[in-house]
Amino acid sequence: MAVCGVKNVGKTTFLTNLIPLFRARGLTVGVIKSDAHDFEPDRQGSDSYKLKAAGALGVAVYSPFRYMVIKDHKGLTPLDLVPFFSDYQIVLLEGGKNSPYPKIELLRTGHSPGLLSSPPHLAFCADGIFPWPKDSLVFGLTDYQAIADLIVSRL
Questions:
Q1: Which domains does the chain have, with CATH numbers?
Q2: Which of 8, 69, 99, 101 is exposed most, by the fewest CB atoms within 10 A?
Q3: Coil, helix or strand for 52?
Q4: Strand order in 121-126's β-sheet?
């Protein structure tokens, strides 16, 4: 499921409020965050950063409790990352406005110029009136419990 909207509409805030509601139900949750720009995945000066800077195309760091994999890959899509979360009950994509996944689009008055995402839409969350597609489910931006209930009903 993708949670999408324009930059700074509140996608991360929305997800950080939803995740505890799923966890309270005993569900395991993973998030794949889309970044339209490139990003630096490691701290400058760390050993893994130095190994990558030396020319390694991939670096993994692990402990008895977690792991991190940094791997260069061109044309990456969220679908390429889903296998990393195959043992989770819910995987949420932050972004993915044109992905094939069901979407919850966030819209904020004065910030969102209109609908951004392509179908399929599960619901819209907004603080005002927008030109919704016919028969759309529409919630307030902070109706976290109702959205959590909707998502769980679709599991």
A1: 2-37+74-153 (3.40.50.300)
A2: 8
A3: helix
A4: 29-33, 90-94, 2-4, 103-107, 121-126, 138-140
On the CB side of 71, CA atoms within 13 Å amount to 10
User: Residue 124 in contact with residue 131, Cβ under 8 Å?
Assistant: no
Q: What angle do CA 109, 111, 116 make, to 5 degrees?
A: 95
Alpha-carbon distance 152 to 89, whole Å?
10
Residue with tokens 């909707």, as numbered in its chain: 150
Strand-pair category, 121-126 with 138-140: parallel
Q: Are 3 and 14 in contact (CB under 8 A)?
A: yes
Paired tokens of 78: 């969220």
Q: What is the full per-residue pLDDT of the chain (155 aa) written as tens digits? A: 899 999 989 999 999 999 999 999 999 999 988 766 666 667 788 888 888 888 888 888 888 888 888 888 788 888 888 888 899 999 999 998 888 999 999 999 998 988 988 899 999 999 988 988 889 999 999 999 999 999 999 98
Say how far apart CA 22 and CA 115 lie, in whole Å. Answer: 27
d(Cα 58, Cα 52) in Å, to the nearest integer? 7
